[in-house]
Write a structure and sequence with these properties.
The complex is a heterotrimer.
Chain A (H helix, E strand, L loop, with lengths): L1 H19 L12 H31 L15 H30 L6 E8 L2 E6 L27 H4 L2 E4 L3 E4 L4 E7 L4 E4 L6 E4 L5 E5 L5 E7 L11 E7 L1 H9 L4 H17 L7 H7 L12
Parallel strand pairs in A: 1-5, 4-10
Antiparallel strand pairs in A: 1-2, 2-3, 5-8, 6-7, 6-9, 9-10
Chain B lengths: L27 H6 L4 H31 L9 H37 L7 H20 L30 H29 L12 H32 L10 E2 L2 E2 L7 H35 L6 H14 L17 H27 L8 H24 L1 H7 L3 H31 L5 H28 L16 H34 L76 H11 L1
Antiparallel strand pairs in B: 1-2
Helix pairs in contact in B: 2-3, 2-4, 2-14, 3-5, 3-6, 3-7, 3-12, 4-5, 5-6, 6-7, 6-8, 7-9, 7-10, 7-12, 8-9, 9-10, 10-12, 10-13, 12-13, 13-14
Chain C lengths: L2 H4 L7 H7 L11 H30 L9 H26 L2 H31 L8 H32 L4 H29 L6 H7 L1
Classes of the chains: A alpha+beta, B mainly alpha, C mainly alpha.
Chain lengths: 300, 611, 216
């Protein structure tokens, strides 16, 4: 009796908790509402099964508990019942899988007109690179990274000269425009995770990974790292600000390009050289390095 | 249906299995330390696993204290916290669950359940335990080396695992990898034994389909282990070389804290594939023995044959096979080729079908049964609740696109603790309450057992059920503290504190259980020969607890499957597997039959012939 | 009965009750040790297959610099073949009960195995000192990893070989010796086949394997 009542209480309690709990997902800020819908479908199907199985068990415990003289029926199998249950389960599974795969297909198909933004992860901070006016990111290589060239942009690539580099600042995205996030890490695995966007993806050193989204709500959202990356994992935070078009353009116009940054670095170097501290031509040396394009592997 | 009408079975020749080369113990040391008796080895395995499990339990308290009450305990810093979660996870999955289910229960039960005198290779079996102990010692040593144990997370993903941003990168990671490699050697020795014993060492009449599901579960898990651990072995060796010799198997070009490292060209994703090619079957290495054992507990304590035995066997085999083609569902957001997602989501959801069948058959076994609410039965019911709960959240995570927002959040933590933490551990407890009388001749204390069950079961549910909802908010896992965010409400912190309190309570209930085991060993009520009136073979040995060689002068002969409970027409509500057909109608309790009376001269002849 | 037939019968039916009492309790017509060894072959095959996959994966994405072929590795392959042949001869003799020839053949097998291992060590040495080689070439790393693991398996085999030789010298039962020799022989053949596969993988003619890999 007690056991059956407790089983029923567990079921009722779980369902009540589910509907009453203040803890639920954050209001969505991207186009991935379909993901939420798929979760809801999964919830209904699996929730029904959970309730049915546990209540059935509670009933059995209540009804068939040992009494003096009671004997169980002898029924080694019941093929018909088993096949029915198998079939119903298969239908339920298909009912979850089909929408899942349908949405995944969208998730992996980036729209042709998507803007491109690169996210660079390192222990334990986020930086961002925009393609600039030409709309094309310059090639890059982790071997080119030094204090003057924190992104490892290839200085010989004309596409890279107008790239906008954002370090130690927020990521800005325009509202209602699809954007393909290219993800790159220079040390360990990270994961670019904004709860309100629903989407996330790992950053893998030696490779460029991606996902896409369309921001649908303006505001500032937290960026977290969702792949353990060392002792600073929990403090690897950033902020993404979804702007309307005018604000976004204004912000963009205030940013520095790679060429400007390089020129400034050069100027500072000259100045230092003028002060009598020869620092050599480190930057030129890097420029002459052969860029090995193979280090950035395609995703496998 | 069993053969009720007494038939003339005629003379059945004794078993013709190769007899094991039994090593007769001469002294205390060969009897209890360097023992080749599977039962002693099983106890050694279990004690070691439980001891190391206590370490992992304490680690979980420490990490829960930090999560529930951040900025309160100054002795837990970031590095400590990450070391705690890493060691907790690795110990629980490999050194406790795998070792206890296979090395402990597998060792104890397989020979007894199949009617053998011992494992087929007793010496290798002994070696397996000592090598396992070495692996445990190497792992424990990492607590005492400079830098402490590794804090790379139990997944040990490179490049992070061997770089300086991770605690324990000096020696901890090396010891961890070395310990894993040693463990795999130990497991391979044990696994070959379990599989060969069950396939070739059974007694006469014990067909495969007469085996209890416990044996099916443990043996299938052993086969999975034999085929899956090599992946961890290869990955572990390669990472060791990366760390120690500076090779670049998994290491791409890396700029660490502004400095270019020597590495280049390696693939971090390759390790993930190797790890999960091992890691997913590993889930079933833990789950399948639990499935098997819980089936036997349910049948015995509900006095009913397990429902759909054949379907249960096939489901175990299907799950085992499918578990090798689902591994990349752990990597949906790892940056692998996104088109893999379609394949692995499909295979993952397909595996839900045989798993669901098993659940249905368990609850259908209770239908029109004669349920005795003993402790093993209670733990089995607890298992079904937590397993169903954890299983269905697996459908969320396996369904590729649903996994995207939930992966790497507390939802995942709640899911796998429910499904491969709480559920199998409830089975372990149930199994210990069930077989303790066989192992020691005494019953465990019922009152303490009731307390242990209700606190553990309800407490664990209170810990992990609400934890899913932290994951829905988006609380990431493996966070030392949440810090300031715009999206996590204040109340989530309260929930975290609640979970910590619940975890501490559940943890302390385990101390009651440990006390119960020790107390009952000395002062417990003496058990009868077959306290649960079980039909399966392990309870039919001539001596309790069974002695070296298990069966007395000759091996038992098996006439039926292990689930003849409440057979119509039979004298009692169970028919032991080795009860001769002409005695099935008797109503008085059968004495343990063992190998049955065999004339002395004939017995000697049997032993000789088997050499 | 095949395994498949064994797992479909209905154990609760009275029919099986009478037939199955005669069942011997074995699923395969094999000695226990042979079955265990076959399972171990499966383990070894998985290990080396995974190494192969890892190697091929790496080849496909690098500007691949294959290892130089050396006469040493060819001669090593021949030495391992000799040891396999010697073991085969030991088995044949053991089955005929010619104990002295078994001993000779076993010694030869052990000798060639040690020679092979020494040759592998020498090839490692050549790789490390050969100035023409880039020490950072991943092909090097894989070569050492793969041959190292293969060598470790052979060393493990030598332990069993040692026990067999001891049994032989103690004059154990010829049937017992025959079984041990058979097991060793099967193991050596297995490792020889693995070596052939790895040799082919490492030195696929003209480095065309990476091209094939990239095509997929």
């Amino acid at each position: 009796m007690v056991v059956a009542v407790i089983l029923i209480l567990i079921v009722v309690g779980s369902v009540v908790f589910h509907f009453m709990s203040p803890w639920w997902w954050t209001p969505i800020a991207s186009n991935w509402g379909y993901i939420d819908d798929t979760i809801i479908i999964t919830f209904w199907i699996t929730g029904t099964v959970f309730v049915a199985v546990i209540l059935f068990m509670a009933y059995c415990v209540l009804k068939f508990q040992h009494k003096e003289g009671r004997r169980a029926t002898y029924e080694p199998e019941n093929k018909k019942l088993e096949w029915w249950l198998t079939g119903l389960t298969a239908i339920g599974v298909a009912g979850m899988l089909a929408p899942g795969l349908f949405v995944w297909n969208q998730y992996v198909s980036v729209p042709e007109d998507a803007d491109v933004v690169e996210v660079l992860g390192q222990q334990w901070q986020w930086s961002y690179r925009y393609p600039g006016e030409d709309g094309v990111l310059g090639t890059s290589d982790a071997r080119l990274i030094d204090s003057d060239n924190p992104f490892g942009v290839n200085p010989n690539d004309p596409n890279g000269q107008d790239d906008i580099l954002v370090e130690g600042d927020d990521l800005h995205l325009p509202i209602d425009r699809p954007v393909k996030m290219l993800l790159r890490s220079i040390d360990v695995l990270h994961d670019f995770y904004v709860p309100q966007f629903r989407a996330k993806m790992d950053l893998v050193p030696g490779a460029v990974t991606f996902f896409w989204l369309t921001p649908t709500r303006t505001g500032a959202f937290d960026i977290l790292c969702a792949e353990l990356c060392g002792t600073g994992h929990h403090i690897m935070r950033g902020t993404v600000i979804v702007d309307n078009a005018a604000e976004y353009d204004e912000w963009m116009s205030e940013q520095e390009t790679f060429a400007e940054l390089a020129a400034r670095a050069k100027a500072e170097e000259k100045q230092q050289a003028g002060l009598g501290t020869p620092t050599g031509d480190g930057f030129e040396k890097k420029v002459s390095l052969v860029v090995n394009e193979d280090t950035a592997k395609p995703i496998q | 249906m069993a053969n009720i009408a007494p038939t003339d079975a005629g003379y059945v020749p004794p078993a013709e299995v190769e007899d094991t080369e039994l090593h007769d113990p001469q002294s205390f040391i060969t009897k209890y330390i360097w023992s080749q008796d599977h039962k002693v080895i099983a106890i050694q395995y279990s004690m070691t696993a439980l001891a190391v499990g206590m370490v992992a339990l304490v680690l979980s308290w420490l990490m829960r204290l930090q999560l529930g009450f951040p900025e309160t305990f100054s002795f837990i810093d970031e590095a400590d916290y990450y070391q705690f979660i890493t060691m907790h996870g690795m110990i629980m999955v490999i050194y406790l669950l795998t070792a206890l289910f296979l090395g402990g229960f597998g060792n104890y039960l397989i020979p007894l359940m199949v009617g053998a005198r011992d494992m087929v290779f007793p010496y290798l079996n002994m070696l397996s335990f000592w090598v396992y102990l070495l692996a445990v010692l190497v792992l424990m040593a990492s607590f005492f080396v400079p830098g402490g144990p590794t804090g790379a997370g139990w997944t040990l993903y490179p490049p992070q695992a061997i770089l300086s941003g991770t605690p324990g990168q000096e020696y901890g990671i090396v010891l961890m990898l070395a310990s894993l490699v040693i463990f795999i050697v130990a497991f391979t020795m044990g696994g070959l034994n379990y599989v060969t014993t069950a396939l070739q060492g059974r007694t006469r009449g014990m067909t495969l389909m007469r085996l209890p599901l416990t044996v099916w579960g443990i043996v299938t898990a052993s086969i999975l282990g034999l085929l899956a651990f090599p992946a961890l072995f290869v990955g572990g060796v390669m990472m060791l070389l990366d760390k120690v010799l500076g090779t670049s198997f998994f290491m791409p070009t890396i700029v660490e804290l502004g400095e270019q490292l020597e590495y280049g060209g390696g693939s971090p994703l390759l390790f993930q594939h190797l790890f999960w090619f091992f890691g997913h079957p590993e889930v079933y290495i833990v789950a399948l023995p639990a499935f098997g054992i819980v089936s036997d507990l349910l049948a015995t304590h509900a006095r009913k044959s397990i429902f759909g035995y054949r379907m249960m066997v096939w489901a175990i085999l299907a799950i085992g096979g499918l578990s090798f083609v689902v591994w990349a569902h752990h990597m949906f957001v790892s940056g692998m080729n996104p088109y893999f997602g379609f394949f692995f989501a499909t295979t993952t959801l397909i595996i839900a079908v045989p798993t669901a069948i098993k659940v249905y058959n368990w609850v259908l076994t209770l239908w029109q049964a004669d349920i005795h609410l003993t402790l093993p039965m209670l733990f089995s019911i607890g298992f079904i609740v937590t397993f169903v709960n954890g299983g269905i959240t697996g459908l969320f995570l396996g369904n590729v696109v649903v996994d995207v927002p939930l992966s790497d959040t507390m939802f995942v933590v709640a899911h796998f603790h429910m499904v491969m933490g709480v559920a199998p551990i409830l089975v372990i407890f149930g199994a210990i309450y069930h077989w303790y009388p066989l192992m020691t001749g005494r019953m465990l204390n019922e009152g303490m057992g009731q307390f242990h069950f209700w606190v553990t079961f309800l407490g664990a549910y209170l810990i992990y059920f609400p934890m899913h909802y932290l994951g829905f908010i988006g609380v990431p896992r493996r966070y030392y503290e949440l810090g300031d965010t715009t999206f996590i409400p204040e109340s989530a912190e309260t929930l975290n504190a609640f979970i910590t309190v619940a975890a501490l309570v559940v943890g302390f209930a385990q101390l009651v259980f440990l006390y119960n085991m020790i107390h009952s060993f000395m002062k417990g009520r003496k058990s009868s020969q077959n306290p649960w009136s079980s039909a399966s073979l392990e309870w039919q040995t001539p001596q309790k607890p069974p002695v070296h060689g298990n069966w007395g002068p000759s091996l038992p002969i098996v006439y039926r499957w292990a689930y003849d409970y409440s057979v119509p027409g039979a004298g009692r509500d169970y028919v032991p597997q080795n009860l001769p057909p002409d005695q099935v109608g008797d109503t008085d309790d059968p004495q343990p039959i063992g190998g049955g009376p065999v004339p002395a001269g004939q017995a000697a002849g049997v032993m000789e012939a088997n050499k | 009965m095949t395994i498949f037939h064994q797992i479909v019968d209905k154990p609760w039916l009275p029919l099986s009750d009478q037939v199955e009492q005669l069942h011997s309790g074995r699923s395969f017509h094999l000695p226990q040790k042979k079955l265990a060894l076959r399972f171990f072959f499966a383990v070894g095959t998985v290990i080396f297959s995974l190494l192969t996959v890892s190697y091929a994966e790496r080849m496909a994405y690098e500007v691949w610099r294959p290892l130089p072929e050396t006469w040493l590795l060819w001669s090593n392959a021949a030495v391992l073949l000799f040891s396999s042949v010697a073991f085969q001869r030991a088995t044949v003799c053991a089955r005929r009960g010619e104990t002295p020839s078994v001993q000779k053949a076993l010694y030869a097998g052990g000798f060639f195995t040690l020679l092979f291992l020494a040759g592998q060590l020498l090839s490692w040495h050549q790789l490390q000192t050969g100035n023409a080689l880039d020490p950072r070439n991943p092909a090097n790393e894989f070569f050492i990893l793969i041959t190292g693991l293969h060598g470790l398996h052979l060393l493990g085999g030598l332990v069993v070989w040692g026990r067999t030789v001891l049994k032989l010298r103690r004059g154990s039962n010829p049937a017992v010796i025959c079984r041990s020799v058979e097991l060793c022989t099967a193991y050596w053949h297995f490792l020889f086949i693995i070596w052939l596969a790895l040799f082919g993988l490492l030195f696929f003619p003209g480095g065309s394997l990476p091209i094939i890999c990239r095509a997929f």
